[in-house]
Amino acid sequence: MKLITYLAQGKEQTGVIGEDRENVHPLPWTDMQDVIESPWETLCETARTALSGNGISLSDVTILAPIPRPRQDVICLGINYRAHAEEAARYDSDAFAKEKPVPIYFSKRVTEAVGPEGFIESHPGLAERLDYEAELAVILKKTARSVSAADVPDYIFGYTVLNDVSARALQTSHKQWYFGKSLDGFTPMGPCIVTADEISFPPELPIFSRVNGELRQDSNTGLLITGIAEIIEELSSGMTLLPGTIIATGTPSGVGMGFDPPRFLKPGDVVECGIGGIGFLRNTVR
Ligand code: MG
User: Ligand 1 center to residue 168 CA distance, Å?
Assistant: First the structure.
């Protein structure tokens, strides 16, 4: 299932995308969190019924981020593709050198996620060296505590695309990355959640980004240094992860700071981030 949150006649609604990919069929929930927490069989049956009814043309609605207001900060992985580790260390070895062979976890505040065609805010005067990071995001469906790697697939609701927009000057001038990752308008997400039953585990999907049509990132989600099963096994060994938790798994090489000279974003730039089988975001910097 491809699930979306959309705006129609001023109201937020969840829906399932039809086979033709041109229509959305409304589900009886307004909040994606309730979709995620529904028993799986109930959701499948409800979606089947919805798909047998009339849909609404996608051109008549505004697609929002699938989880527009996450209940908790997004959990992020830093430096989780080898080639990105190299480019980041070249850019600023103090800020990005990975001293230990353990995952870098950080969090990203998302008061309101940006929809797949929404705007990335440039925060002039505050956010210098604006950068993009295409990432595969994992969404959990049930409470996870002490989950073994082998059982992790049972805990995954689905996957989406997330652009971990970063203000590099803020990110690297503070000891922690939190502020430089968490400004308003820094988390485009979507366009849909593809449920986990449609993607074999672990996901090995092409991931890319483009800026003004030029290919910048071009990799595969099978190349994560720390895989999804290990991430969730480690975090859940001491933290309770709740349904609806979003984990952004890190970005491949080709971000703006990786170029020499760096190629940061400016107002008017159009950033596309996509993953094969899920879809893509197309956001304009303003
Ligand atoms: Mg990132």
Answer: 11
Least confident of 54-58, 98-102, 163-167, 215-219: 98-102
Q: Which residue has the higher pLDDT, 17 or 171?
A: 17
Instruction: Give the model's pLDDT for residue 98.
Output: 72
Distance 4 CA to ligand 1 centre (A): 23
Which residues hold their Cβ within 5 A of ligand 1, which is an ion? 133, 164, 251
Q: Where are the alpha helices (DSSP H) in the chain?
A: 32-37, 40-52, 82-91, 93-96, 168-173, 178-181, 228-236
Distance 78 CA to ligand 1 centre (A): 6
Give the 3-state secondary structure percentages of the chain, helix then strand then coil, rounded to 5.
25, 35, 40
The per-residue b/e assignment along 97-115, b for 16 or more CB within 10 angstroms, e otherwise, is eeeeeebbebbbbbeebbb
Of 19-28, 89-98, 148-157, 193-202, where does mean pLDDT reach its minimum?
A: 89-98
How far, in Å, is the centroid of ligand 1 from the Cα of 28? Answer: 34
Amino acid 175: pLDDT? 83
Q: Report the predicted TM-score, pTM, of the whole model to 2 decimal places.
A: 0.97
CA 268 to ligand 1 center in whole angstroms:
22
Distance CA 131, CA 274 (A): 16
How do the domains of the chain map onto residue ranges? 2-64, 74-285
CATH architecture of 2-64: Roll (3.10)
What's the gap in Å between 249 CA and the centre of ligand 1?
7
CATH superfamily entry for domain 74-285: Fumarylacetoacetase-like, C-terminal domain (3.90.850.10)
